[in-house]
Amino acid sequence: MKSWKYLLMTTMVGSALALGACGTDSTEEAETDTESASSASKDSQEEAVLEGKVSGDGSSTVAPILEAVVEEYSTEQSKVQVTVGVSGTGGGFEKFIAGDTDFSNASRPIKEEEKQKLDEAGVDFTEFQIAYDGLSLVVNKDNDWVDSLTIEELKKMWIEDGTEKKWSDINPEWPDEKIVFYSPGTDSGTYDYFDEVVLDEADLVKSAQLSEDDNVLVQGVQGDKNAIAFFGYAYYLANQDTLKVVKVEGIEPTNETIESGEYSPLSRPLFVYAKNSAIKENPAFYDFMKYTIEKAGEMAEAVGYVSLPEEEYEKGLADLEALK
């Protein structure tokens, strides 16, 4: 802009010297053009300012990503009010089905029965994948006997069989102490995922203390040497100074092992499900979803998850644009 103004001023001075009185007209025209350009720029900026409300709910695992997105978005569109609840994946879908929210965060794919209820409610939706997570097993920092667990050991540990579980039941060399279990609540997508890939849909051990808030699980393990829990990778990273992560089948969850799928079977995608009608009818929601997809990879890495390949975000943007 400065070079453009300098060029304009030079031209004006040259014209004044060469043309005398005609220079006055040139100056007035140039000033008029400048004022018009400034006015057009101001109008464009005003038109870009949106107002409206956007509401979402769902997974506590996905919440850190969306909270980071919302914080950044508020600096660009301060008149758009975005609220994001944390009722767990299942609880979020219940509100989505009821028509209470524009989008639902999920740490597992939507279930067939949830799709059916949305169809019955007349809600069309689109699935957007936003990041990868590695469901992480953690124990107390003072636990010096567990470094790695197999899927079979996890089954023996976490499946209810009517007995009181002790560490020595899993490995005779481990302490003869009762295992204290902390688990996400039954509305959590993390619970559902663990139930599917580890428990084979058997009953979770009845003594487990459940919570939809992963921070409660973190605090439980921090306070008990015999405790074990599972939750999203970001919550482990945020508390790695006070927690110890357990390898699964000899593989530790890291950005590299999660993205490659080597951390199997506990690597998983994270989702946002958006209501199609809200995308079409609410400019603020369309703009927020566009911003979310554009920033999801960056925000995922910032809070401790793993970004998708860039082409996945490009596909998401194309799917969003097709709904507008």
TrEMBL record:
It is found in: Cell membrane. Residues 48-293 form the PBP domain. It is a lipid-anchor. Coiled coil: none annotated. Its main location: membrane. This is Phosphate-binding protein. Pfam families: PBP_like_2. The keyword Coiled coil does not apply. Belongs to the PstS family. Gene3D superfamilies: Periplasmic binding protein-like II (3.40.190.10). The complex is composed of two ATP-binding proteins (PstB), two transmembrane proteins (PstC and PstA) and a solute-binding protein (PstS). Residues 24-58 are annotated as: Disordered. It comes from the Bacteria. CDD domains: PBP2_phosphate_like_2. It comes from Psychrobacillus faecigallinarum. Residues 1-20 form the signal peptide. Keywords: Cell membrane, Lipoprotein, Membrane, Palmitate, Phosphate transport, Signal, Transport. Involved in the system for phosphate transport across the cytoplasmic membrane. Part of the ABC transporter complex PstSACB involved in phosphate import. The keyword Lipoprotein applies.
